[in-house]
Amino acid sequence: MQDPTLQDLADFIAASPTPFHATATLRARLLAAGFTALDERSDWQLEAGGRYLVTRNDSSLIAFQLGAEGALSKRGLRLIGAHTDSPCLRVKPQPEKDQQGLWQLGVEIYGGALLAPWFDRDLSLAGRVTFRNADGALDSRLIDFQRPVAVVPNLAIHLNRGVNDGLAINPQTDMPPILAHSLDGGRDLRALLASQLASEHADCEGAQVLDYELSFYDTQRPAQLGLDGDFFSAARLDNLLSCHAGLSALLDSDGEQPCLLVCTDHEEIGSSSCCGADGPFLEDVLRRLISDDAERIQVIQRSLLVSADNAHAVHPNFAMKHDENHGPQLNAGPVIKINNNQRYATNSETAAFFRDLCARTDVPVQAFVVRSDMGCGSTIGPITASRLGVRTVDIGAPTFAMHSIRELAGSRDPGYLISVLTAFCNSAQLI
């Protein structure tokens, strides 16, 4: 990959197979750049000009820089929001299945996944494991098998002649991946996880695994493709592309303006959790930044949120699925997402601000409105706007195959998004 931005995005995605790993990757990069980690259970000593981060549930992160003395009260916050989770196959609590001499794991579908692309892929397994260590204390660590350990094979067409006429996939019976031959009546997943813990973490020898949150993922690395390298293909582009762009913008900014990056879990299932956008995480952090209620309202009203989540590019084989005047194209810049029923939080003022920002940054910009006879998806923008009262614009990089195991973006759009978000972080004036 010749483009350093795409290579960095590819490395970020490859290191982030689950929301836990995405948060750990974000945290590690921020710490390496000089940010200070905070603990929600401790008192915070914040200083003007300081740069800080805090995580919740190991799967959501907020990072912020305060700018010069008094800048927060006078200029408000430049907020960038994204989410760390993607649709996938999650392992059930008692998943072991021994069928036809093969060992499988039962899975639950997380989010609105396109299931057909999961068949015949080389899958690995990653997530968070909670255990009792050798001293009897409870602890949690992340694991990642990295290598292919499972597959969901298709049924041969000879046994399913009508498959190309339409296939109804049963998530309970059709999706359990195969991991191995059964040995003497089966294997023990918790014993397997204990072994993996010990191999990845030297201090976890002898751990007794109590529970876990594990996801299967595609082991194929991201790739730039096309005759002229016009496209970028990867798993979890929705929404790690936006997490990476927000992180890059924050790190590339001049540090003069108060900025905050919030990357939360559980967007794909509604955001209603302690660490989701519909939970109190962001509000809790803002209360600690600005303890006075009246002053906090004033700061929020001087602030602006750019909610970054991928947008639907117009597909050449399915152009009729778009409004004829609102078909965003790959490599044509970020998309402003608009819905008058408030599935997106964009209004005329925030859209105008973002259009002007793109113009001043020499970044092309597009607009998306769903067809009037189709339902509209949503994202963290309306949720955050309604909880905080902050002005919001919903935007995103155009993509194909959203919610597939492998999605497709334009190879120039990640750079466009980083450029305009960096300009946003450096903006002295908001609307």
TrEMBL record:
Provide the cofactor list for this protein: Zn(2+)
Instruction: Give this protein's Gene Ontology molecular function annotations.
Output: aminopeptidase activity; metallopeptidase activity; zinc ion binding
| Enzyme Commission no | 3.4.11.-
Gene3D superfamilies per record: Aminopeptidase i, Domain 2, Zn peptidases
Q: Does the keyword Metal-binding apply?
A: yes
Which InterPro entries does this entry report, sorted A to Z?
A: Peptidase_M18 (IPR001948), Peptidase_M18_dom2 (IPR023358)
Q: Which family does it belong to?
A: Belongs to the peptidase M18 family.
* Name used for this protein in its record: M18 family aminopeptidase
